[in-house]
Amino acid sequence: MNRKTAVITGASSGIGMELAPLFAAHGYDLILTARRVERLQKLADELHKLYGITANVIKMDIAQPLAGERLWQAISAITPEIDALVNNAGVSDSGDFAAEAPEVIERMIHLNISTLTLLTRHVLPGMIARKRGKVLNVASTAGFQSGGPSMAVYYASKSYVLSFSRAIRRELRGTGVNVTALCPGPTSTEFEATAGAHNTRLFHWLKPMEARSVAHAGFQGMLRGCGVVVPGLLNKLLAIGPRFGPAAIVLEINRFLLSERR
Q: What is the pTM of this model?
């Protein structure tokens, strides 16, 4: 039997790095992508030794225009038959939108939305033809919110990922292809520190989950065919809460939670 292949973007740290051994332990060969090739290669070598799988590494900055197209070409050069796609790579920033650098905003939109969308578009036809496949999109509990003052573009981008995942999941019903949106809350990763989120009241008051626990919940939810996975009871409350309050109040609460501690 041919071994299955999984693609994981942003696999050099955090949730992506924790997902890689879960796929490897289930017999998937891997294609790992990120900018930090040294970390990727170390991870690939370790997983090959532990599980006997093949792990290929693609070094690429996918926060660029048409990065999804270039990444798919690189993936196809290894194999066009992808059984699982994990769109994990993401970036954020904090601060008032009017003061954010345009290039930071553009990178966020390209990485969180454009590359994820285009890569999914390239992978799906083959999955549909083979009548099997799994897509795991890493969104966030932010995707359930009315908006995130001080993290406006990030919150909006995660709302897109959640909406997009739900829509194509419905389109794919009956094809054998499943789409899961993983929506973690605050998580202990390098991502939160680089985004400046670790200094907010939200991270101070809510204990972040470990990336390994989030990855395990997302992987198991994907295997079960879940549409949306929200790890942790408190995070589930964060996801459900906005449904019961006026948007104006939710926005004020988020503005407070996303402001820096004094």
A: 0.89
